[in-house]
UniProtKB/TrEMBL annotation:
Domain of life: Bacteria
GO biological process terms, semicolon-separated: rRNA 3'-end processing; rRNA catabolic process; tRNA processing
Subunit record text: Homohexameric ring arranged as a trimer of dimers.
EC number per UniProt: 2.7.7.56
Organism expressing this protein natively: Puniceibacterium antarcticum
Pfam families in the cross-refs: RNase_PH (PF01138), RNase_PH_C (PF03725)
Class of the enzyme per the UniProt entry, highest EC level: transferase
Keywords for the protein's UniProt record, in alphabetical order: Nucleotidyltransferase, RNA-binding, rRNA processing, Transferase, tRNA processing, tRNA-binding
Family from the record: Belongs to the RNase PH family.
Protein name: Ribonuclease PH
Residues bound to phosphate: R76, G114, T115, R116
Domain Exoribonuclease phosphorolytic: 1-130, 148-214
UniProt keyword annotation of Chaperone present: no
UniProt-listed InterPro entries: ExoRNase_PH_dom1, ExoRNase_PH_dom2, ExoRNase_PH_dom2_sf, PNPase/RNase_PH_dom_sf, Ribosomal_Su5_D2-typ_SF, RNase_PH, RNase_PH_bac-type, RNase_PH_CS
Length: 227
């Protein structure tokens, strides 16, 4: 694992916020509580967790245009924010949450590989801090968060299984994947693909073992951050 740090309370107005640093990947995550839900679950008594994701223009080596200036989100952005949303929902008891929505905003300040994984890991911290405010205000009775949710990348680089790829490793990896797990060991999503190479079932098992080790370390960092 690259060095990991999670700084909480970094914005004044959000109900929950953190700045997560995984190596040279830095992501600002904020949580916003709203007393509304999407129309398709209105009246169901269920809560909803959703996410939005974006990269700042100079988060990479050259300036990228803001998607707002282009007029639409790119396919990669849409795919990542859907991944963040469904990953975080997998750790939530939506009945206990009550009929409200919590939106997690993930803004990549600096990118060096693994931005979606850092967003999920930091997004859970922001979500937990927002939920703690709801409990303190007695707006909900029990904690709706079943288990921490964290994510890490793994890949085959130079023929070796590697945990938490940075950008140079990710760009040259023969196989790379993103692993989203709960703190209790349950799997949420595995994204693996061969990049000019192939992988065996045994290698997939090696990467999953690495991911479980990495997620355990991330969950430890999460729990320290929200304590």
């Amino acid at each position: 694992m690259r060095s990991v740090s999670i700084e909480t309370g970094v914005t004044k107005h959000a109900e929950g916020s953190c700045l997560i640093r995984m190596g040279d990947t830095h992501v600002l995550c904020t949580a916003t509580i709203e007393d509304r839900v999407p129309p398709f679950i209105k009246g169901s008594g269920l809560g909803w967790v959703t996410a939005e994701y974006g990269m700042l223009p100079r988060s990479t080596t050259s300036r990228m245009r803001r998607e707002a200036a282009v007029g639409k989100q790119g396919g990669r952005t849409v795919e990542i924010q859907r991944l963040i949303g469904r990953s975080l929902r997998a750790g939530v008891d939506r009945v206990a949450m009550g009929e409200r929505q919590i939106t997690i905003d993930c803004d990549v300040i600096q990118a060096d590989g693994g931005t979606r994984c850092a967003s999920i890991t930091g997004g859970w911290v922001a979500l937990k801090l927002a939920v703690k405010k709801l409990i303190k205000a007695r707006e909900i009775v029990t904690d709706p968060l079943i288990s921490p949710v964290a994510a890490v990348s793994c890949g085959i680089y130079a023929g070796q299984p590697v945990l938490d790829l940075d950008y140079p490793e990710d760009s040259e990896a023969g196989v790379d994947g993103n692993f989203v797990l709960r703190g209790d060991g349950q799997m949420i999503e595995l994204q693996m693909s061969a990049e000019g190479s192939v992988f065996s079932r045994a290698q997939m098992g090696q990467l999953l073992d690495l991911a479980e080790k990495g997620v355990a370390e991330l969950v430890e960092a999460q729990m320290k951050a929200v304590a």
